[in-house]
Design a protein that fits this description.
about 150 residues; 5 helices; 6 strands; about 35% helix; about 30% strand
């Protein structure tokens, strides 16, 4: 198991928190836009509420695809662009302020489209609103494989 974290401070916190498990992950100080792993070397990539903040999300998804083995899986739980026009309006309106106060998080990234455009085929996906204000809680959860 390997984890990536670009922030040295957060990486240090993660390393302190992982020592008690049966199988501690190898934690690397690295960005998803430049994954320091060989091509086709990973069985599964998991993203959880991270695609919203990665500056070059397409590059990161291409890197995830590159390191996945031919039958590898991308498992994702992400928030993003709502299909509801009224909610999208508020996501787009709030996004500049939200990015500034929420560490670069984008409320309005079209997660399905981004995953598919980066060379994945979505095999399974559930969507819907989580608890909280709708502009912040439209969720995508699914499984994709390399196309």
């Amino acid at each position: 198991m390997i984890g990536l974290e670009p922030s040295p401070k957060l990486l240090s916190m993660a390393k302190r928190a992982t020592g008690s498990g049966m199988r501690s992950p190898e934690l690397l100080e690295a960005s998803a836009e430049a994954i320091p792993l060989d091509d086709e070397s990973i069985d599964t990539v998991v993203t959880t509420w991270t695609l919203c903040t990665i500056p070059n999300v397409m590059r990161a998804l291409e890197e995830m695809r590159r390191v996945l083995k031919p039958n590898g899986r991308l498992l994702f739980v992400e928030h993003g662009l709502s299909p509801d026009a009224a909610v999208r309006h508020w996501q787009n309106r709030l996004n500049p302020i939200w990015k500034a106060v929420a560490g670069g998080c984008h409320l309005n990234r079209p997660i399905r489209e981004l995953i598919e455009r980066s060379g994945f085929h979505i095999e399974q996906m559930d969507t819907g609103y989580g608890k909280g204000p709708k502009p912040m809680t439209f969720m995508y959860e699914g499984l994709a494989r390399r196309s």
